[in-house]
Amino acid sequence: MPASDYSIPYRPLGTTGERVSLVGLGGFHLGLSHVAEADAIRIVRSALDQGVNFLDNALDYNEGQSEIRVGKALRDGYRQKAFVMTKVDGRTRDSAAKQIDE
Fold first, then answer.
1. In the Cβ-directed half-sphere of 6, how many Cα atoms lie within 13 Å?
2. Which of 7, 25, 47, 48: CA 20 to 30 A from 73?
3. Distance from CA of residue 34 to its chain's centroid?
């Protein structure tokens, strides 16, 4: 079955009014050194084009490369298609805020 024939289910995200896909795209593998940046961008954009709108990432993944590549993939209008979740590992308010700013 071609990918375009799949129907991605969505659910409300709490009381935010946002609807996110039940299928999400994790970001760890996108920043691995053996994954070309162009391939990582293609993976993200292909998922968004198929209806996946939930992206999961973390600053710690591959020394930040995963988030950098997702950021590049979200250029050219793709940011409006995505609900991006990222994790911080700071255990204090200040350290978490610093990571968010980064």
1. 13
2. 7
3. 19
Q: Give the C-alpha separation, 70 to 73, whole Å.
A: 5
Annotated catalytic residues are 61
Q: Give the end-to-end CA distance of the chain in Å, rounded to a whole number.
A: 41
Helix, strand or coil, per DSSP, at residue 50: coil
Burial 52-69 (b: 16+ CB within 10 A, else e): bbbbbbbbebbeebbbbb
Rounded to whole angstroms, the Cα distance separating 46 from 50 reads 6
pTM metric for this prediction: 0.86
Residue 20 contacts residue 10 (beta carbons within 8 Å): yes
SS (H, E, C) 19-50: EEECCEEECHHHHCCCCCHHHHHHHHHHHHHC
